[in-house]
Write a structure and sequence with these properties.
Length: 355
């Protein structure tokens, strides 16, 4: 069955792969674009990823604007969608609270408002740390009553990006529940490239990690031998997103998209280093110590690492019950992740050496 979809963040890394999969399956898509003039480039990119560019249509707008800045005609176009996939986000370290909130929280609420007013299912992309309740408690998020959370204090602890992703998650759920409207949330682990061709965009956390290792900036492994950075391949992620978005059972539910057998960070760095043919760091540095070292002016730049990125390296194991249930239902399996990592490393190495 073909369903019309409205997508925010379609030009981003996950967005391009989502568009590729949706259009290859014959779904007509409306993509919110701040610069609609870039639509031809996006179509070309999606075509290269195996999608059907003819099913992609641009809608001009910006999530930080009132009503997403949509024209009346585009509001009408979008109203025929069955699902709104909300992926747009300001995804970078060092964001101020004001900027992170304006885009990641208010923007998400504006998308939720549109979905609720048109009675369209909202598929929102969260992040795996939202399923790490120990972490949420430790940074001061009140899980039982999120409205009581001192959000500026949380932003001060974890940075603008993560703070705003957490705040928007609870704010959107609250909004959709009050409006009696349907939502589904997918929480991805750190996204690695496409399992077959390794495609990943520059600036992604995983491609930056590979680049840092390639350029010899990784001097030690952050954390202990138990620390890990859970991964998911972008192809598994978008398949899961599409399945749950169209599944009535998934109304008002959440699921993790995470490969639970991702190796420890040490093991992963070893694997990446082997493919890059460089030395892997062997010594470990406790996360707390590294965090304080990074407050020394110049060190974060020298080691090309941000304290905010350390939040995602942890020892927590996750409850994968819902993911397993859905994998059985949709006959969805993770690809061979050793190969996915290897292909991503080769893809990144290619553009790092060209620079
Ligand atoms: N990648 C990961 O490892 C990872 C892990 C967990 C969760 N996530 C979440 O997954 C989602 C997608 O991530 P991604 O990696 O694909 O991000 P990305 O590559 O950085 O793409 C971000 C997208 O958001 C759009 N955008 C930014 N500000 C906007 C605004 N004001 N109005 C409209 N569009 C705007 C960008 O459009 P332009 O082309 O106009 O800049 C771009 O299409 C995000 O919500 C992110 O938090 C990602």
């Amino acid at each position: 069955m073909s369903a019309e979809c409205f997508i925010t963040g379609g030009s981003g890394f996950v967005g391009q792969h989502l568009l590729s999969r949706l259009t290859a399956k014959g779904h007509k898509t409306w993509v919110l674009m701040r610069t609609p003039g870039n639509i031809e480039r996006l179509r070309e990119q999606v075509g290269q990823l195996g999608g059907n560019p003819a099913f992609i249509h641009a809608v001009e707008g910006d999530i930080s604007r009132e009503g997403l800045g949509l024209s009346e005609a585009d509001k009408q176009n979008v109203s025929s969608a069955t699902v709104i996939f909300h992926l747009a986000a300001q995804f970078s370290w060092g964001l101020t609270l004001e900027r992170a909130r304006a885009i990641n929280v208010q923007g998400a609420l504006s998308v939720a408002k549109l979905a609720a007013s048109q009675r369209i299912r909202l598929l929102m992309v969260g992040g795996f740390m939202l399923q790490n309740l120990t972490h949420l408690n430790s940074i001061g998020v009140d899980i039982t009553c999120p409205e009581n959370t001192d959000w500026p204090a949380v932003y001060a602890r974890v940075g603008g990006y993560e703070g705003s992703k957490l705040e928007s998650h609870f704010a959107v759920i609250r909004y959709m529940q009050d409006a009696d409207a349907d939502y589904t949330i997918v929480h991805p682990a750190t996204v690695c490239g496409h399992s077959e061709n390794g495609h990943i965009l520059e600036g992604q956390p995983f491609s930056e990690l590979i680049r840092n290792l390639a350029q010899g900036q990784f001097k030690a492994v952050p954390g202990s031998v138990r620390h890990w950075l859970p991964l998911v391949s972008v192809d598994y992620l978008v398949k899961m997103m599409i399945c749950v978005a169209l599944d009535p059972f998934m109304a008002n539910r959440q699921v993790l998209a995470l490969y639970e057998r991702t190796p420890s960070l040490q093991g992963m760095l070893l694997q990446i280093a082997k493919t890059l043919d460089v030395k892997a760091p062997r010594r470990h540095v406790p996360i707390g110590l590294l965090r304080s070292l990074l407050t020394i002016p110049g060190l974060a730049t020298r080691f090309a690492i941000s304290a905010e990125s350390l939040n995602f390296i942890q020892v927590q194991r996750f409850d994968m019950g819902m993911s397993r249930q859905l994998e059985r239902k949709y006959q969805l399996t993770h690809p061979n992740m050793t190969r996915a990592i290897e292909n991503t490393v080769r893809y990144v190495k290619d553009y790092v050496t060209k620079q």
